[in-house]
Design brief:
Largest sheet: 2 strands, parallel
Number of domains: 2
Shape: globular
Distance between the termini: 58 Å
Number of strands: 2
Helix content: 55-70%
Amino acid sequence: MEKIMEAPHIYLVEELELRVSIEAVEYKRKLNDFWLENTFDPHYFKRFMEGPLLSEFVQTIYKRTQHLNNNEINKYLTVSLSQFKTHNPALRFEALKEQYYKDYWYPNPEPDHHSKMSEYETKYFTHVFKWYEKHFHLFEEATKQALDDFKKGYLGSFADFSLQNNLQPKQKLKTNLTVKEIAYLFRALHDEGIIESRQKTDLFNFIAENFSSKQKEDISANSIKNAFDTPDFNAVDFWQEKFTHFMQKAKKDKEK
């Protein structure tokens, strides 16, 4: 949400609405300006909402509260949380549509009222809004978690300490596995209930932050997510062979 100018009277859901509107405009312009290279992806905003935007939203919470005192943090998070009721998507369709129309024509004034948007534009906006509405609860859960963290003392008094820890370079675990092999391993562990995470995004971020590949591949939360959601056949074959070997070794160890 760094694309939105910081303002103390703007709370989280208002900022979230602006961010969604900006992304909708940018994706639309990308399709219009580079139509030979890009085709409309009906699941783009699904991935955007539950991946990059959610991660960005969580980071924004901590950035916005980093330099506030405890009273200000409490007010900021409490008011922001209340906005999930006052700014629920069911009540905000027209307001968001108007915001999108303004952002689309910026820096020029809108040629007419947003209610006169073309059928095509209205259909596109409704598509974006549908995904926003479906994922709205994820952002509410993240805000509740932040407020709980504050009440437990993880924000506020400990903010400077946390910031110093975050500034220290983190040693990653090096592995010979490819991104696709790492993703499938964690998918298997997750599906078996061996590891748990409230949201898959947390798992993707954990892997990206703690593992590096000697294969010189870029391990990012997005690359892990893509390989996690759509397993690579070669990675499946690789782990099928490894799991068979593990099973044989476990059998031998048991017979000792």
